[in-house]
Each structure stands twice: as C-alpha cells, then as structure tokens.
Specification:
Chains A, B, C, D: Keywords: Polyamine biosynthesis, Signal, Transferase. Chains A, B, C, D: This is thermospermine synthase. The structure is a homotetramer of 340-residue chains. The longest helix of chain A is centred in the N-terminal third of the chain and has 18 residues. In chain A, helix 3 links the parallel strand 7 and strand 8. In chain A, the strands form two sheets. Chain A has a seven-stranded mixed beta sheet with strand order 9-8-7-10-11-13-12, sandwiched between helices. A five-stranded antiparallel beta sheet of chain A has the order 2-3-4-5-6, covered by helices on one side. Chain A folds into two domains: 52 residues, Roll (Spermidine Synthase, Chain: A, domain 2), CATH 2.30.140.10; 229 residues, Vaccinia Virus protein VP39 (Rossmann fold), CATH 3.40.50.150. With 340 residues, chain A is an alpha/beta fold. Chains in contact: A-B, A-C, A-D, B-C, B-D, C-D. At the A-B interface, strand 3, strand 12, helix 10 and helix 11 of A face strand 3, strand 12, helix 10 and helix 11 of B.
Chain lengths: 340, 340, 340, 340
C-alpha cells in the first residue's frame, strides 16, 4: 500500500524549491578553467571560461577565442584579454566616434593596430568615410578574427577597408598619403613591449603628425584612467600629446571586462569646436549608419568631464614619453596587443 | 690572487639591474591571504591582504579591519568589503553631496545605516547642516569604527552628530522629526538579507516620505550601475522611486574597490533645479568646509549623464520593489552591510 | 667622453644578478589561464595552463589536451583532470601491476574505461598477457588520445589490444568470455554521475564476478585515500568488496596532480599469496618488458601498508554501495571520467 | 478560498529537496578570505578561512591562528601555514617517534625550533624521556601557542619540558649537555631564510654531532618528498647527512595540508637495528603513554619504504649542503618557520 500525504503548498514555497533546484544545478556546472588578469601585483580579475572555441598561433603570439561566463566570447592574444563580446562596444565606440564626430568631415582613417576588426567596423559606420586603412602587424590574428568573429564579418569585406600587414610605424613612415583621423588602437606601453615607442613624443611629432591632413585628429587609447590607476600611463600620454599638439582632449569610460575605467586622448593642431549634446546627436544621426549602443551626446559629455581627482593629476603632470623615459602599466586588459 | 675585470656600464644597465633586484625582492613578499569577492558566479575580484589590523564581532556580524595591497585599509563586515581607504571618498562624496547641493538650504540629515561614520563625516562638512542623525543597528560596528578609523574621528565627536542605535525603519516610524535630506547608506537588496524592505515602494511611501520636510530629498545607494550590471537592481530601484516621487535623478560613478560603476538615486516631490557647473562649484565653495577630492561641478555633470545604454534600460524599466517582488544582487561590495 | 668604471665582481655577485634576471624574466611570463580543481568546497588545487594543445568534443563530453606548468601535458575531460604527463605513471602502474603480479599467470585482462590508453599500455607490458580488452564508451576520447598522446601510441597499435566502444556494464553482461584480471579504471562515484552503479555490490556480484576466471582478480580505482579524505568513498568501496569477495586488499599512493593520496582495492575469491619483496622484484623482471618507474617490491610493500588511521576506518566501515545507497566525492581528479 | 493539492511524495524526492536546501544554504556561506600557498610558481593550494581567531606579532614575524574550512584551526607565521589541527598529528608523530623508537632507551631530547609545542608534546609521550629541551628563537610565538593551542597545554606545563628562547645553533654551541635524540623541527632551507645553515654539513659535523650521546640519533624534517618535489631539497639533505653520519634512514608520509608527501631523515653513527613491525608495536605500547593516531609498526614500515622513483634519486644524489652551496624550496608548508 502506498501512502498518500495531503499537503498545502504556498506558491512561495514551490518557487523556493524551484529556485533551490536551479541554484544547485547551476552550482554543479561550475567552471574549472579560469582566466586571471593580474591587474596589479596583488589584485586579480578572474573569470570562468566555459569553453575553448578556437585556437591559433602566429609568429608573434598565440590566439584564442574562448567562451567566458561573465563577458561572452573573449579574444585572447598571448593569453591576454583583447576584447569581450558583451562590452567591446564601449571601448570601440569610444575610440572611434568622438574624433570622427568632432572632425568636420572625415573621409580617411588610419588605424594603427586594430587587427580584430572592431575599430574598423565602427569607423566604417560613418557613411562619409571613404577609406579606412587598418595596419596590423599580425596576418594570423587578422585571419583568425575574420574567420571567427562574425560581428566584424561585414567590416572585413567592405570595399572601403584597406588591410595592410605591416608595422604601423614603418607603414606611416613610408606611405605617401595623409589622413583625416589616425587612431591608435594599440597595446598599452609595457616595459619591453612592442608598442612603447608608438607613445613617444618623437613618434607623434616626426612620424605621425606629418600624416595628418589639415584639421586632422589623432586619437589614441591611453590606458587605465581610474581613480587609482590614471597615474600609471594615462596622465603621461595626455601630457606628451599636450606638449606635441595645440589642442588635446582626454576622456574616459568604465569598461567592465577591463576591470577599470579606460582612457583615450584626442589631439589636433586645430581647435576642437564646442559641440552641444544636440549637435552631437544630430551628427550621429546624419553621419552614422546603424545604431550606437553606448554613445550619444549626453554620454560623450560625461566621458569628457572626467572627475576632479583625475583632472588634478592631468593638470599637474610633467612627464613626457621619450625613447629613454617611459612609463609602463602592470598588466591591464589591452596589455599585449601585438603591434610594433 | 683576485681577478679584476674592467667593465663599462651604461646607466641604463645599472638601472635595469636595480629594477630587477627590486622586482625580485617585491616578488618574494607576495601575499598569502587573499580576499575574494564573488562579483558574479564566475567572476571574482581578488586582492591581497598584507595584515589583519583589528578584529571584532557583534551579535549581527564579524568586523575586521585589514591592510589590503591595492586599496589600503579595508573594513570588512561578515567578511564583505564595506569601504576601502583609497577610494571610499568616491562613494561617500557621491552619496552625500549631490542631494545636499541640490537642496536650497539643508539643515537636517538622517542617515539610514552608515555606521562606519564616513557618510556622517561628509554631511558634517556642510556648515549649514545643524544636525545629522546616524541610525545604525549595530553598536559594535559603530564602536569599532570610532576606535579604529581615524579619518572619521572628528565626525564621531561632532556635537552636531546624533548617534542612534536602532533599526532604521523602526526609528523613522517612531521619531517625530522631519528632515531635509534622508540618506540610504544601506546594504544592497539581497535575497534573505536584512535591507530588502528598505527599498520597497511601501517603505518609501508610508514610512520615509512623511519624514521629509517640504522640499526634502531622499538619496539612496542603488547598487551596481555598470554596463553589464545595472539591470540587477539599479533600474528597479530607480523605477520604484519614479513611481513614488515626482522627481527622480539617477547618477553613477566607477568605484575601483567595488569592481564596478556604482549607482545612486535622488528623489523628491519638488523639482530639482537646473544648476550649472559654475553654480555647483560656487555652492561647494560656500557651503562646504574642507576640500572635496572627487566631486566638483564638472564631475557632477558627468555622474548625472550616465550613458545611452543604461538610460535605455532605466527608461524601459517596469519592475517595482514590493514586499512580494524583490530583485537581488549576487554579492557585490556593499552586500552585507548590516542594517534592517 | 665615455666614463669607464673599474669594478671588482665576486662570482657570487654575478650569479646573483643572473638569477635575478632569470627570476624576473620568468615572472613576466606568468600564466593567465588557470585550471582550478575544487577538491572540497573550500579547498582548491590550482595550476597554470601555458598552452591549449588540442581541443575536441564527443557526444558525452569536451576533450582538451593542455600544457600545464607543474604537471606537463594534462588531459581534461569535461574540464576535469584525467591524467598528467609527469605523474600518470604512479596511477597507472598502481592500478595495473599489483593485480597482475599477484596473479599466478594472467593471460587476459578486461579494462572498464581507460580510454586514454595508459592502463592498456601498462597491462601490455606483461609479456604473458595475450589479450587486453579495453572497453570505453566514448569513441571520440579514444580517437583523440590515440592521435595526440604519443606515449600510448605503441599500445594502441598492439595486436593484443582489443578495443570496444561500449558501456562497460553492457559489454560484460553480453560477452561470453572470462578474464584473469578485470580493471576498473573508472570515474569516481559522483552524485548523478555515470559510474556510480559500477561500484555497487549487485554489479560486483551479478555482472562482474561471473566474468572472472578461477583465481581471477578484480582491481578498481577507489577514490581519494588520504588522511582527511578516505571516508568519502574509499572505505565504502573497500567494505562493499569485502562483503562480496572472500579476499580483499586495499592499497594507496600519493599522486601529486590529484592533490591527494589515491586508493585502489584488489578483490578475489582466491587467497592472495604472501609474496616477499624479492619475489615481487623477480616477477617484475621476468614478466614485464620495459621498466617500471614507480613500482618495485619495496614500493608495493609500502602501498599495501597504508597507515593506522586509515586502517582503523577501513576496519570499522559498515556502509555498502547499493543502487539506493551511494556515497559520493566532491570533485576529485578522476571525477568525470566518462564510462557508464 | 485556499487551494489544496494532493501530492504523493517519494521519500527519495523529499531527501532530494532537503539536500538541495542544504547545498544552497551552505553555498551562501562561501568564504571571502582565502589562504593561498604558492607551492610552485604556477601551482597554488588555496583554502578558505572562515574566521580569524587570534592575531599577534613578535620582532620576527606575525602570528595568526585562523579557522580554515578543510583543515580546522591553522597556525600561520608570517602568513605561512605552520600546522593544521586536522592533520598535524601526521607530521608530529612522524618527526618524533621513529627516532625515539629506534633508540634503545632515549632519556633526553633536544628540539631545534618547535615553538608551537606539538613536537614536545609527542616527545613527552615517551615515559622514559626525562628531559625535553625545546629551543625556539621567538618568545612571542611560544607564548601565543601556549595561550591559544589547547592541545599542547599539558606539554607546555610539563615539569620535564625545559623551554629555551635562543637561536638553536648558539644554544647547542654553548650548552654542556649531550642528548640521546636531537630533532630538527625547522624551517625549510629557503634562499635568504634563517634556517639554511642548520642543514649544512659543517653544522651537522661541528656543532650538532658533538652534542649527541653515544648511540644518539638526529632526526630532521627534510622538506617535500613527493614524486615531483623530492629533488628540491630532500635528496640533498639526505646526501649531506649520508656524508656526515655512518647510518642514515630517510622516510616520508603524505601530509594533506602541506599539499605534498613530506620527508624526514634519521642519522646516527650507530647502526639502526632491524626492528620488525611487532617489535615496533611492542615498543609503542611499552614506552608511549597515550595513543598514536597515525603511526604503528606497519605504518612505519610503509614510511621507510618510500618508492622506486624517489630511491633512485636518493641513491644518485651527490649534492652536499655547505655554506656556499645550498638548495632551496619554492615556498612550501613549513617555509618560514622561524628558527635561526
């Protein structure tokens, strides 16, 4: 004989049981592979990897595309995070659009680095841009990203994209063209790293500036810009550009997968116009095909504002990047992006 | 016989050797104790603890003050980070000053929670504020912080501070006073946590609002507000207040030790005035004794701007916190701050 | 003009500088990918992965071969460590040779599981063994290991090896042969895991024992057997076999990559002979082609001895694995080895 | 009206629900503080700390007693694990009893280091031992352990214990006594660490040996002795003693909290007698008051056997510890035990 029990359940109890079952199930699937970013010597940003999707290698570095728990698909170069599916739009909209929106009529763009294709993708959203040169040193990375990062497939096949496999410095030195906007989508300056010289005053002055058209704008990623990290390289890159260009505009935004607020700097020898939020939104609407997800007039205003603490450091910074005097970061997100 | 070798050193080489020696030495002192915040199920924020400074306990929780590597002294309640020496000014300036600066003439402030004393410290910087009531449930935490957190010593001994050990809800219900500004320096809403009900519409409507003077402002911490985390509770707290007060102003700032952008919301039944940057700076100068390190007019402008992605979520949010319908965060920074 | 400095170096100083340089260089190459084994809920065994070598997948599980820092190449199934290049000889010599050496003249061996090939490799070292049946459920794992684990290539191509892709239980039930030695190279009993029933008394009694020749020996891996872990399943598997076979011999050895001492149990209905160290060494010399690296007469003596603490638990154990009453481990090394 | 639902539960389902509830509850209490032992550069042994019990400091080091998840109470010196409640009996029975049991009639024992008191506790279990000198350099550690480690309280108050606060080398040099057994319960040899010279041939020859009575035995802890770690220092300490004493006996056992098999070496100028298991058990029964939990005749046999792989290394080792030629371990369990 089987027992029958009469029970009264509250809906609340049933929900509780279900949530417990879910919680336990999820718990059992916990990760074994973890990606660990050593942000500083005793600060780690650690996230679970649920699947290795693709692996590759070039003469310069290893290449991996992995499925992470918190950030979606993540591209790793030499085991370092390059960009994450769920928030790469923050970094890439930020590095591309402010300069292109401030420029009165940008037609040509040169990207130093940027092999994964996302920076080019954003630049190509500007219908007025006729030509984007993307100059990355690593053919294999470019091929890998073209094959596996579907979100950039359209950009890679655009007739307006000119892909060059070369060292950015060498390419700029030898090319005969000038550009409206040059974008430094580079590795952070690392001690002994390949990108250090692309942040020096002599590079900006002698190699890069001659390749900007009249009214041209340089924008470069400039490392971590958080309350506790902006003194590492950000203030120095800012000051180096301030000593090299007439007009310099720093800005920043928090990028979750980088575990920090990130910084960029625009520089030009022509004054940046005062653009109101409404004008920014108007330009976005008129120039850009496709939707932006992070940036609009109000957001740009916030990015440019920074905060009192960081401004104070920027204002007082005296260090200039030269070949003999660099500053280096410990090991942040964009750390080993390979580009000489 | 001893060999003598003649060697030419470049200064560069000598510097290299010294930096190597330093690097190696520092390496040998690596941490053994680590604090691990499980930001999400597979995302960890981990930092080294070099020294346990003080330990204590109350009937509610354990209390520890530790020396961390990246964030200076860190206060832990029940093993959860409460605030960190090196960036607590971002959180505490942000939770206090916007509301007090927007108010035309704030004289009385009620703080729900805030036992560590930093929120009171900031409020007391306003020379026009005649009375700050700080209502925390845990006598031991308050005593511990008064004894060990020297940066708040002056605040704790201010004659303008009235310290109440009580549950914030009970205290508000029973007190006969009204206040110009009420600050919710509370634990995040956690499933089963003590603070959940202090974020509900009925609490705001029935308990809190009656204790605001005419023109009074409520400001509450509102959980993580980053690109990837603002849907957890921030948008919901915003919408709950929007359905309860006539005017609501959300804002946010990146707090490094919390590993995220953090959110706050101001709410009032009287319109917030349009204040220009210059006016903000003027009010800071005239009302506040002592210097602010994070906030000025421009910074406040940036905090209020948020970004397109977060605004879109806020605009579309329909969830309201009620006793039967909560939303909860996984385990962020302010997680277990004890306050019923 | 260049300065010249005359310096006297001690050899000691030069060595110091070189070791510092090495230390620093090595330091800069630190790992970003880490494998984390949750040995218990709050105990983790974590090691660096320097390279993903090969990735694959079957209908049952994901398959990865990675280069680890401390353990050489490591095979992962469903993200769990299966075996590590640098110490797999300890596990595989231990699971195979004691039973084959105690048996008077073993000619046929049946391996439940063992898809990576190492258990077969060890069994095939016995020149008297004419046939080794390896029965693994996962064709893809077998193919992956045959392709990538060169140390087992010879074994995989041996004419004495008969490879069957099937569930071990089903295969034993349906096959008409009997064997001198049956080896359980199985997953640990996990709650909900595929292998649990292959440790039950009814399986041993009804399915397995009928397939042993007269004098035949069963040996099974039996989970962690350390001072703190042997109560999880080891004592229980031991007792289950003790209640099923007339003679039972437990033994154990520390396997570094498993972060614990590991246990095995031999069982037979015929008494195990008293074999002196010298006799063991003699049998090794006469029966085994190729060298053993871990096992000799003295080592076997040590493995069989266990220690007082563990023996006390084994002696007093009363639990028996049945379909309704299992015990499970938290998540050790051999956790998810796929074999039904 | 309230709904009533008639449901049939199987006991199995109810058990499942309860286990899920437990699992989830336990999950919510997960640790925030973790102790991380860097066993090698890319191998970490990490365990949760649920509570800081006591903190202290001396002129030499910090002292902490913490409640760990997997190992019970753990004593940390300078943030390094010294001994763990749940398995310290393995280490301390192993370092003390073999030498005292092999000795025909030990009456006096000198302990180099051993400030926590556990080594003395084990030695005092021998009723024939009339005097135990424990010589530790750190008064504060001794006081801390006497106050907080209740398991050693009886030993600390024994009239047979003579406690000396001094450097072990200096104490041995200056004392006029000789001893039957000298125990080296010392820090591992670390580069730059305080204990290195207490492992050198000249120390053994010139300082220590003259203080041994006729038939006296030295036993020293000798670092990790696992399959992958025994070449770090164990084989070297063994060989150094082999070149200094006529008879040398290495042995080892797995200590879970040390994440490795641990090694000890006995040395004497008088031959170690062949003692059968039964004789060992007889001596334990006759000489020792109180029960041993790890060691008996059979266990001792297993410890002495080691394995083929380690024996091969020991046999071929040629390195000798001298003041100019040390070997060092990376950072294992007994790493910073303070004793000069």
């Amino acid at each position: 004989m089987q027992h029958k029990i009469v029970v009264c359940f509250s809906t609340k109890f049933v929900k509780l049981v279900i949530s417990l079952i879910n919680a336990t199930f999820v718990q059992q699937q916990r990760c074994s592979l973890w990606f660990e970013e050593e942000v500083e010597r005793d600060l780690r940003w650690v996230y679970g990897i649920s699947k290795i999707l693709h692996i590759g290698a070039s003469e310069f570095q290893t290449i991996e595309l992995v499925q992470s728990g918190p950030f979606g698909k993540v591209l790793l170069l030499d085991g370092k995070l390059q960009s994450a599916e769920l928030d790469e739009f923050v970094y890439h909209e930020s590095i591309v659009h402010p300069a292109l929106l401030y420029h009165s009529n940008p037609k040509s763009v040169f990207i130093m680095g940027g092999g994964e294709g996302s920076t080019a993708r954003e630049a190509l959203k500007h219908s007025g841009v006729k030509k984007v040169v993307m100059c990355d040193i690593d053919q294999e990375v470019v091929d890998f990203c073209r094959d596996h990062m579907t979100e950039n497939a359209e950009a890679f096949s655009s007739p307006r994209l000119e892909l060059v496999i070369n060292d950015a410095r060498a390419e700029l030195e030898s090319c005969n063209e000038k550009f409206d906007v040059i974008i430094g989508d580079l590795n952070d300056p690392m001690d002994g790293g390949p990108c250090f010289t692309l942040y020096t005053q002599s590079f900006y002055m002698n190699i890069l500036k001659p390749k900007l058209n009249l009214g041209g704008i340089l924008v470069t990623q400039a490392g971590p810009a958080g309350i506790l990290s902006h003194r590492e390289v950000y203030s120095s890159i800012y000051n180096t550009l301030r000593q090299t260009f007439k007009y310099v505009v720093p800005y920043a935004a928090h990028v979750p997968s980088f575990a920090d607020t990130w910084g960029w700097v625009m520089a030009s020898d022509q004054a940046f116009p005062m653009i109101k939020m409404e004008e920014t939104n108007y330009r976005i609407q008129n120039r850009i095909q496709g939707e932006l997800h992070f940036l609009d007039g109000q957001t740009l205003c916030a990015m440019l504002a920074l905060n009192k603490h960081v401004w104070k450091t920027l204002a007082g910074e005296t260090h200039i990047f030269t070949e003999d005097s660099g500053r280096f970061i410990h090991g942040h997100g964009r750390a080993f992006k390979n580009q000489k």
